[in-house]
Write a structure and sequence with these properties.
Blueprint lengths: L17 E3 L1 H13 L6 E8 L6 E7 L7 E5 L2 E5 L1 H7 L2 E8 L2 E7 L23
Parallel strand pairs: 1-6, 2-5
Antiparallel strand pairs: 2-3, 4-5, 6-7
């Protein structure tokens, strides 16, 4: 039997720093295979902000830094430095294909669009914030 939770107990939910969708992991595995990339880790980082919000980057690396967050998502080993982690926490990396080609897209729940455009219709204004 499970005891009901008491009101004074806190609920702890583990949220990964960043996770990959199945599509993103599939594309990353294909890139590693196609380009014969020997690196063991994918580093995900925030490269800075600007008028259109945060800029993200990704690259392959052989070794983690001592302070890196190390995690695995969809069978891919990821590295995130502590500063980037504070901006990325809870983000999802997806791979999207459209008529113009394919691209990785980061869905970050911590960032609101900063361009001031109205994107409620679901269309993008081209600013890269959403």
């Amino acid at each position: 039997m499970v005891e009901p939770a008491r009101r004074d107990e806190e609920l702890t939910v583990q949220v990964p720093v960043v996770r990959l969708t199945e599509a993103a992991a599939r594309r990353l595995r294909a890139l590693i295979r196609e380009k014969n990339i020997p690196a063991r880790y994918l580093r995900v980082f925030v490269a800075g902000g600007g008028c259109c919000g945060l800029q993200y980057g990704m690259g392959f690396e052989d070794q983690p830094a001592e302070t890196d967050h190390q995690l695995e998502s969809q069978g891919i080993s990821l590295l995130v430095d502590p500063i980037s982690a504070s901006y990325l926490w809870g983000s999802t990396i997806d791979y999207v294909e459209d008529p113009a080609g394919g691209f990785f897209q980061i869905h970050n729940p911590n960032v609101l669009p900063s361009c001031g455009c109205d994107h409620s219709s679901g269309s993008s204004c081209g600013c890269g914030s959403h």
